Structure formats: C-alpha cells, structure tokens
Amino acid sequence: MSNVFTSFAASLRAGHPAYAAFVGLTEPLVTESLMRDGFDTAVIDMQHGLHTTQSAILAIGAAAVAGKAAFVRPPVGDFAMASRMLDAGAVGIVAPMINTLDDARKLAAACKYPPMGERSWGPYRATGLTGLQMGDYLKAANEITLALAMVETREALDILDDILRVPGIDGVFVGPSDLSIALSNGAHVDQFHPDVDKALTHVAARCKAHGKIASCFSMTGARAAEMIGRGFQMSSIATDQVLLRNAAKAEIAAARGAAKPAGAKSY
Ligand code: 3PY
Ligand code: MG
C-alpha cells in the first residue's frame, strides 16, 4: 500500500524538497486550507502554537483530508507526546530543544520501535491513515516516520555530529530564532544574522555527510527556497498567524490607499 503517509519520508530522503506550513491555530480548517493551497506538509505546533493534544489529532486528520501528511512539534522534552502523535498518524516529529545526546536518544527511543528504540505499541490511527495492517506497520514504521531533532542552541551545534549519529534520529530541523538568541547570548533575535547563516551552512553539510535530512524554519517563501538551494530537504514557511496577519495588513493597506468613494470614512 502506497500513499502519502507511507511515501513522504522516502520522498524527502530521496531529495524531493518539501515546504511545510507551521500551524499554531487550532481550528482544523486552518490546516486543511493551508494544505489545499499548496504546502506539501504541515508542522502542527504544540510548543509555541495553541495546539492541544485533541486539536493536534484533529489537525493531522484535516491535513489528511487534503491528501497531506503532517508533522507534530510537541512541547519541549515531551517524548511521550511524540509517541502519541505518531500513533495519531503524524508522519514525523519535530522535537524542540534537543540539546544533549541524552535528549536525542530519548527522542529516538520514543519514535522508533525495537530494536532501534522503545516506542510502545498502539498505532490505531496511524494504521488507518497508512492503510497498513498491524504487522506491516510494525515492519515499516521506523522507515516511514521521521524523528527530526531541533538544533537551536550552542550545545546542540557543538554535538551535531553525535546527534546525527544516534540511530533513529532521521535528521535535524534548525530553529533559527532560538539559535540567534543562543549565539548572541540573548542580545537579539534575528533569523537572518550571519552567525545563524553560518550555522545553517554547517548543518546542511553535516547532514549530507551523515546521509540524514536537513530541515529548518524560514520566515519567508524566498528564504525557504534559498535553504532548499543550499542543501536543505525541507523548510517551513512563516506561521499560519504570520501569513494571516501579513495578508490582512497588505489588503487593508491597499484598500485604505485606494481612491475612496465619496463620503467614505476611515475608522
Ligand atoms: C526557532 O526559530 O527557534 C523555531 O523554533 C522555529 O519555530
Ligand atoms: Mg525554537
């Protein structure tokens, strides 16, 4: 059985680039709409987004309605939630603040079945979405779902090769905002800072050397395309709230800047 849930990870590993929507709003139609409007996948955000366990589960379903497989970003250190979201049909986990080897091993353990990890059995929604029978899901799961470790601190950068060597860690996802704060010792948040840029180049090169997936957050579509050109396989673009606010501001500015009909008032 092949569908987006069984083929997405292989497609990414084969180097087909993917653009992800970063979804913090809990209404399932937000996810569905973004997926229908051309994103390849979603990162359902339980760390800084508003998502709860229930809304994240519904968002995975909403992406599926649009024919897309979604990732989930659980809260920091919540490895039990990572397993839970894979059971609920997430195609992968984007785990924030993986700063130590112990963090990376815990992530791999939560996401992968033995002997690679310690994921506990119960993929009831995942078997529905993948269309796989239980035994086939057990055989395929470690390959078709992805554990991406977020690299967003100095500590993580320092041990990047060790993180990438952990069996069960499929790749990394760079958080450029936190990284900019970490690299400047809290002086600024600047995703485009040259130090962050240098780190992004380093991450892409090390992932390539280890044969693992390089992915990252980008604030704009242009930056995301640049990252794909620089060796990343996946980049997210902005967040749902940023997209909404940018579109709202642009359209209202266009309206207010347009010739006003006689008698029109500004509020
Ligand atoms: C960061 O840039 O720190 C992120 O976590 C992106 O969401
Ligand atoms: Mg972050």
Put the structure in a nutshell.
With 267 residues, this protein is of the alpha/beta class. Helix content is 50%, strand content 15%.
Report on this model:
It is a single chain. This protein has 267 residues and is α/β, with parallel strands linked by helices. Helix 2 runs parallel beside helix 3 and helix 4 packs parallel to helix 5. It has one domain (4-244): TIM Barrel (Alpha-Beta Barrel), CATH 3.20.20.60. It has helices spanning 4-13, 28-36, 53-65, 79-87, 101-111, 124-130, 134-144, 154-158, 160-165, 176-183, 194-210, 221-229, 240-257; strands at 18-23, 41-45, 70-73, 92-95, 146-151, 171-174, 213-218, 234-237. The model has no long low-confidence stretch (mean pLDDT 96). Helix 12 links the parallel strand 7 (213-218) and strand 8 (234-237). Strands 1-2-3-4-5-6-7-8 form an eight-stranded parallel beta barrel, surrounded by eight helices. Magnesium ion binds next to helix 10.
List keywords for this structure.
binds magnesium ion; TIM Barrel; 50% helix; alpha/beta; single chain; eight-stranded parallel barrel; 267 residues; binds 3-hydroxypyruvic acid
CATH architecture: Alpha-Beta Barrel
Percent in helix: 40-55%
Beta-strand content bin: 5-15%
Q: Structural class of the helix and strand makeup? A: alpha/beta
The counted number of beta strands is: 8
The end-to-end distance, rounded to whole angstroms, is 57 Å
Q: Main beta sheet, described?
A: 8 strands, parallel, barrel
The set of bound ligands, ions and cofactors reads: 3-hydroxypyruvic acid, magnesium ion
Look at the structure and give the mean pLDDT.
96
Query: What count of domains describes the coordinates?
Result: 1
Strand order of the largest sheet: 1-2-3-4-5-6-7-8
Tally of alpha and pi helices: 13
Oligomer: single chain
What series of H and E elements makes up the topology? Answer: HEHEHEHEHHHEHHEHHEHEH
Shape annotation: globular
CATH topology: TIM Barrel
CATH superfamily: Phosphoenolpyruvate-binding domains
